[in-house]
Records
---
Amino acid sequence: MSWIAISDADSQHYSLNGLDAGTPARARQGEALRRGSLVLETRLSPDGRPQNLLAHRVNTPEKRTLSFQAIPGGGIVFVLHQAGETTHAVVDLDSSERADLLRITYSWDVSKNWARLAIERPETGWLTTTLIENAQPLFTDDIRSMTLAPQLLQMDDDVEFFAVSDQIEPLGPMPSLDGLVPIVCQGRYKPLAEIRPGDIVETLEHGAVPVMGKIARNVPARGSFRPVRLRAPYFGLQQDIIVAPDQKLVVSQPMVEYMFGCEAVLVPARHLVNGTSAIWSDNHLTKTYHQLILPGHETIVAAGSALESLFLGRMRRKPERHMASLLAPVARERLPEHLLSAHQVLRPFEAITLVEQCAA
């Protein structure tokens, strides 16, 4: 089981048995959830104004408060007060990039007296964490109240969603392809979910290469995880495929060289949503994504289009980052090192212009 609550401005969902799994709950209603994570995604005010991103307060049977605030100067303040004790953490941010989407994750494990506040920029891969000494859980009554009684919750308009899991949610590189996306594997198209480590896939740069690993994760279908449907025949696709917003396509058309002076560019799927060639796919509450780990961060052939595989950078040299990620079960020495792609990543207005010109 994982996600027990997901809420945004339009819908609220809560179940102690899990929103998709339907498995026995780890805690009863009214008890503390002794292990879990609260995740929220937000954009910060470009004018630097203070924001009460998320705030919840109850006075019975005891006073309990929870708040996430963005403060002028580029910082996130987290406060959790209950049973006369206060858990507090502050994370400084680079104020020059305040408009970026942030993913804020508070994770806790009371049995280990451990808690962590993490801030990520999903669009760039930037990540910072701070450990919290006084680990405190969330109570299931409070989680239900936050989710199903939005009038009792203060949530800034810039918050895209919040969700609560009964797991320590991983940080860092995330999968970004639907399991049904067909990948050229050993000479034929094969659904990504069926590909295994050791299989041979076709890449643009190095031809046939072995799959070194594979990751999958079930996430809220909101914010940076909101599914995008890329539609055929655009982008060379032979069929529609579902990807995460930050999945990058490698686009190499004559118009690319004319507009940008290079053979190919990278375009995040979120920049392609225009109601025609790419649309939001909002018929999911949660979504399971998959991705492949290849030796050199090669480009895979998916349904006729070229897509980036998982980028690891130098994670193998960073033990703490490795242990906090989905790749923790894999020995660091078995992970490849990846160099940044040589291709330019298009900004939103550049991607929009390219799609319009290619469609003209």
---
Amino acid sequence: MEVYTIRHTSVGVPRGTCYGWTDVPVADTFEQEAAATRKNLGDVRFDHVFSSPLTRARKLAAACGYPTPTLDDRLKEMNMGDWENRLYDDIERVDPAIRKWYDDYMNLAATNGESYRDLYRRVASFFDDLRRQPYERVAIFAHGGVLICAGVYAGLFPETDCFSHLVPYGGIQRFTL
């Protein structure tokens, strides 16, 4: 099965904002970014389209011609818990746990949130289920963390340096399951 994972476009929040499950707005550049993503997808057609339920992913799916994707909570970005929708600089002043998280974000969770390992298990569960489906080509509109986990799952790159493979906003990662 061919899988196209597509990262949402830029978001309309101040730089340095921690957002994961927060349903933040898209940036003012959405129309231009979505047009570029549509162009990069070309004429490819999908048997099925999935999306994170968060607006920034669903909106790009709709802009690419898929207004009713199958929504799956496992495709949400990492849950950043108490840090959601706060500036990292502000978090550093009130929650010393963030310094430990910076040093070991692969294993430690945000306060009352998820770790990378939690996110990976969630995303891997989605792909384990997807493997059992009869689709030939699917699109998945999601988030940077989800695309990183998908790339590790698919063997595109090792977990040890997975964050160096972050797909840009509106970018596409393709692989075969």
---
Amino acid sequence: MLKIEGLKKGYDGNEILKGISLDVNKGDVISIIGPSGSGKTTLLRNITTLEQADGGHIQFAGVDNDFQKLNSKDIQTIRRNVGFVFQNYNLFNNKTALQNITEGLIVARKVKKREAEKIALEALERVGLSDRRNHYPSQLSGGQQQRVGIARAVALNPQVIFFDEPTSALDPELVGEVLKVMRNLADEGTTMVVVTHQMNFARNVSNKVIFMADGYIVEQGSPEDIFEHPSEKRTQEFLTDILANV
């Protein structure tokens, strides 16, 4: 469904992504793990065209082109078929939960307001926040704000939803409510690519785990492959360190 080959990205001569290739199939829940600075967030932002990659090829939603040759129509097509859940929510502070969701539908998708509100309410129901539809972000907890962010992505009915460390800005007691929503989406067959430090989610919800370090995919496989039988020394060291601190 989504195929990335040889994706490269650098900043000021510093190469961040060093030729990443990735296949995402319908219904996949892929967790990307690895140390800070390994290029995980950059990878998501380049796949979704929030940033322009320096090299590589993408096949997705009828687009089959080099990243550097994507035209405005290609970029629009890619963006229309992905959802993105940001680490820091990225909600409009002057809009209610409902309005945060309808904004993209009305402006980007040209959906009529009444239909957009219907879709938004259904999305809020899915994340357990229909009773907070008229609340502004300042009236919501961090976990609730992130659930609105997930509802916003879901409402667009994308082929793939990308999550960039969706729980890292949350207080520990709020993490569970967001992970529960994500687990429910996975159970419903939603295709998801998740950058995460939540090893239990990666282990128990994903069907594929990717370990990145230093701009490369070091190792990938099933959760059992990665967590029980990692073959690369770098993967073994990372898991030993991070699981020792759980």
---
Amino acid sequence: MPTAFELWKAELLIVGNIVQDDDSTTPPDEAQRRFQRYCAMLDALTGAEGVQYALAIFQSVQAEHDYGAYQTANRAAWRFGEQAYCAALLQELPRLINTLPDWAGDFLVGIANGAGTPHAPAITCFNTLLAAAPPAERALIAAFIAQEEDDGWFAHCPGVLGAGQG
């Protein structure tokens, strides 16, 4: 018998795969129902449910065009605290970099933009966890960050994320 979390996650993964405009197989009312359910599931999270929920949130990011839903997902993931947020994001970053690099950049720039603000500890948290990541994952993430520092997501804040990685 699946646990309550497993059932929740299974539904989140289904509704989190946001129906794209060019999808002619899903009726528009069903696409809207899924979108609304996804946002409602995320809005219901308090951050006290357990860190596995933060990971499930990032796993639910599966579509290129989200129509605003993944911003709701990002806010929900932050409710679990910077440690859970950064650990969950790091676990999903290789997949996001390879399949949805704009979402990888979007989530990471949210951390990087904390430089010089009260949110700066998230940068330290991310960099510490990245330094402890398996070498292949660390190299992939560091290469993505370096590439995006040239003329991409992190051009305005080079050296903030992944400092000392490579």
